[in-house]
Specification:
two-stranded antiparallel ribbon
Length: 188
């Protein structure tokens, strides 16, 4: 194989020799199944990645089995072959492997899932702590209410005792007033 321009890409004539597929058929495969093949177009010439040569042979076999273009695409997609998207920049043309991008997205999703799991565990612990705090608050309220009830009872008892003592003192003072001066002097 002649790899004059790049070690990874060869021209259609060299690819035709390697795969035993006519050049025009190769070009048609490149156009019809571009999402699975890694190639670039330089002017009017196609450069095919060496890695795509075996896939071109497989495409040829699928067509020889009587499959149509859409069936071949479905078959290639079901085999889990990497899908390539060609991106045209102002400066240069390049290819991006969707499988690589999907792998990156999958890794990010797994990281997010782990973070969500950790967040859910944290939230669960937080809810448990809040429930404990709420229960403690309820217990404190009950204890405060009990103490308040006891204090109010003691205050009422103290007030009753004070009232009784005032009434006794008042009654005693009344009796003193009613005593004659002689009874007061003698202390009876």
């Amino acid at each position: 194989m002649n790899t004059s321009e790049s070690t990874n890409f060869i021209g259609v004539p060299e690819a035709s020799e390697y795969t035993n597929i006519p050049p025009e058929t190769l070009k048609r495969y490149l156009i019809n199944h571009e999402q699975f093949l890694n190639f670039k177009k330089e002017g009017r010439r196609y450069k095919i990645s060496i890695e795509s040569l075996d896939l071109l042979k497989k495409i040829r076999e699928l067509y020889s089995e009587g499959l149509l273009k859409d069936d071949v695409n479905d078959n290639l997609a079901s085999d889990g072959l990497p899908i390539t998207i060609t991106v045209k920049n102002q400066e240069e043309k390049g290819s991006i492997s969707i499988n690589d991008e999907l792998s990156e997205i999958k890794k990010m999703l797994q990281q997010q899932e782990q973070q969500m799991t950790q967040q859910m565990q944290f939230n669960q612990k937080l809810v448990e702590e809040l429930q404990k705090v709420s229960q403690t608050n309820q217990e404190l309220k009950q204890m405060i209410n009990r103490k308040d009830t006891e204090l109010i009872g003691e205050l009422r008892k103290g007030l009753s005792e004070s009232k009784r003592m005032i009434e006794e003192a008042s009654a005693s003072a009344e009796l003193e007033k009613k005593k004659t001066w002689w009874e007061k002097l003698m202390g009876k």
